[in-house]
């Protein structure tokens, strides 16, 4: 196992442990991350095992992607207080499920290959929800203690990660046909974005918890 993968597993475990340790001092909407981290860990672990045995495990990520989106949308649904924003969240879930189902039905082989279509759609949806969150936040009238506003920091983290991934994917698809080798090297940026994501989760859970009185 290479160093990056070891660090990735370590940060995933750290995210889960910090959330479990401080879950009583964190807002209730953080509960959607409780199943997310173990599922991400298990998916990556099973894919590594299959790959080491000479098998392709890419289909595991295509199964994990809609589960991840549902949990993240659950987080946004809980954060949003307006019914209109909650409806938008549900509509986006439906759009994701329908579009991915149609795509993989028409391109069944892509389901067993390292195809990033579903992840790209998911990233776009999370970015839409993230921007919506910040626009809605501008309308908050009551006093907000930003240091303890967990949703703010989680949302900022999501925008940086998923926005960065969309940027990387855009270049990847542009370069893939003309320079596959460079495209693959460029895609490695996503590995560092993943490390940033789970390190960010851990820091947010530790720093934004409600202090003891």
Low-confidence stretches: none
User: For the residues shown, what is the average pLDDT?
Assistant: 91
Distance separating the two termini = 44 Å
Q: What's the total count of β strands?
A: 0
Task: Please give the share of residues in helix.
Answer: over 70%
Q: What is the SS-derived class?
A: mainly alpha
The major beta sheet can be summarized as:
none
The percentage of residues in β strands lies in: under 5%
Order of helices and strands: HHHHHHHH
Shape: globular
In total, the number of domains comes to 1
> Any idea what the radius of gyration is?
18 Å
Number of helices: 8
Concise structural overview:
This protein is 74% helix and 0% strand. The protein is mainly alpha-helical and 213 residues long. The N and C termini lie far apart (44 Å).
